[in-house]
Design brief:
- Chain A: Belongs to the PurS family.
- Chain A: InterPro entries: PurS (IPR003850), PurS-like_sf (IPR036604).
- Chain A: It is an enzyme of class 6 (ligase).
- Chain A: It comes from Nocardioides gansuensis.
- Chain A: One of its GO terms (biological process) is 'de novo' IMP biosynthetic process.
- The complex is a heterodimer of chains A (about 80) and B (about 220).
- Chain A is an alpha+beta fold.
- Chain A has a single domain (about 1-80), classed as Phosphoribosylformylglycinamidine synthase subunit PurS (Mth169, Chain: A, 2-Layer Sandwich), CATH 3.30.1280.10.
- Chain A has 2 helices and 3 strands.
- Chain A has helices spanning about 15-30, 55-65; strands at about 1-10, 40-45, 75-80.
- Chain A has a 3-stranded antiparallel β-sheet, covered by helices on one side.
- Chain B is of the alpha/beta class and about 220 residues long.
- Chain B has one domain (about 1-220): Rossmann fold (3-Layer(aba) Sandwich).
- Helices cover about 20% and strands about 25% of the residues of chain B.
- Chain B contains 5 helices and 11 strands; from the N terminus they run βαββαβαββββαβββα.
- Chain B is globular.
- Chain B starts with a strand and ends with a helix.
- The chains are: A alpha+beta (about 80), B alpha/beta (about 220).
- The interface of A and B includes residues 13, 14 and 20 of A.
């Protein structure tokens, strides 16, 4: 079994209201100096067999088709090292 | 005219949309998300709600429901499709319409009677209105901020594809106050406000929404 990780982030130019809400909450909790927060999503996919380039390409396809919306989000895919 | 109204798991406004279709002078046909059969309808409404719980992104999972394969094919052949609120989100996720809808810029759910200007009356859903007509239609959304890149916004404006624009206050941070758009062919319309809730004086902010449902009949007779 191999674990593939897909990180999805709102594109830099897209307003991220959730990140803004977190940014607003941090000073109220006494955390100073934070100038920006962006909130994204992390997907962990377990796929049968050893990690292969073919499987990685499939995960890229999944990320571009369903896991992210290319209009508003960027994604990055990597294989997580075996435990 | 037979107008299909799709019910997804989590749709809220499918029954109101069916009622609005009937009040508009057409026959409402219930369509099911898990069935790719469009039952011979002449047009389709994707109603509001929280299909699939808005999981992943609003409309992202619905877009791959079996019924949507048929809706996308039919839309590409020219069938009129109206997506309201969650339906608009599904149309953007399907890439039948450009852009995307993100969380309201003020981060709160908004529910209000919204002033709008109808700017494109050449679609099968808006032909009953006069160009530039100002109407009041209820709006309720948490993720209704319409966004697209500058080039796409300029294209939409240049081609007259902004169907409706917010007047007075912008309720959700939509770029250029855009409340609704259409595709290049003009048969697919996405709209964030809810015309199906404004079709009877008894229940709602007047009847300004009825035009979205009478336009179809008028389009057939024309």
């Amino acid at each position: 079994m191999a674990r593939y990780v897909v990180d999805v982030m709102p594109k830099p130019e897209i307003l991220d209201p959730q990140g803004k809400a977190v940014l607003g909450a941090l000073p109220r909790l006494g955390f100073a100096g934070v100038t920006d927060v962006r909130q994204g999503k992390r997907f962990e996919l377990e796929i049968e067999g050893d990690a292969t380039d073919e499987a990685l390409a499939e995960v890229q396809k999944m990320a571009g088709t369903l896991l992210s919306n290319p209009v508003i989000e960027d994604f990055a895919v990597h294989v997580e090292s075996q435990a | 005219m037979k107008v299909g109204v799709v019910t997804f798991p989590g749709s809220l406004d499918d029954v109101d949309a069916q009622r609005a279709v009937r009040l508009g002078g057409n026959e409402a046909v219930a369509l099911w998300h898990g069935d790719d059969d469009l039952k011979g309808v002449d047009a389709v409404v994707l109603p509001g709600g929280f299909s699939y719980g808005d999981y992943l992104r609003c409309g992202a999972i619905s877009r791959f429901a079996p019924v949507m394969t048929s809706v996308i094919e039919a839309a590409e052949r020219g069938m009129p499709v109206l997506g309201i609120c969650n339906g608009f989100q599904i149309l953007c996720e399907s890439h039948l319409l450009p852009g995307a809808l993100i969380r309201n810029d003020h981060r709160k759910f908004v529910c209000r009677d919204q002033r709008l200007r109808i700017e494109n009356t050449r679609t099968p859903w808006t032909s009953a209105y006069a160009e530039g007509q100002e109407v009041t239609i209820v709006l309720k959304n948490g993720e209704g901020g319409f966004i697209a890149d500058e080039a796409t916004l300029d294209m939409l404006e240049g081609e007259g594809r902004v169907v409706a624009r917010y007047l007075d206050d912008n309720p959700n941070g939509s770029l250029r106050d855009i409340a609704g758009i259409t595709n290049a062919r003009g048969n697919v319309v996405g709209l964030m406000p809810h015309p199906e809730h404004c079709v009877e004086d008894l229940t709602g902010a007047g009847t300004d929404g009825l035009g979205f449902f009478t336009s179809l009949a008028a389009a057939v007779l024309a």
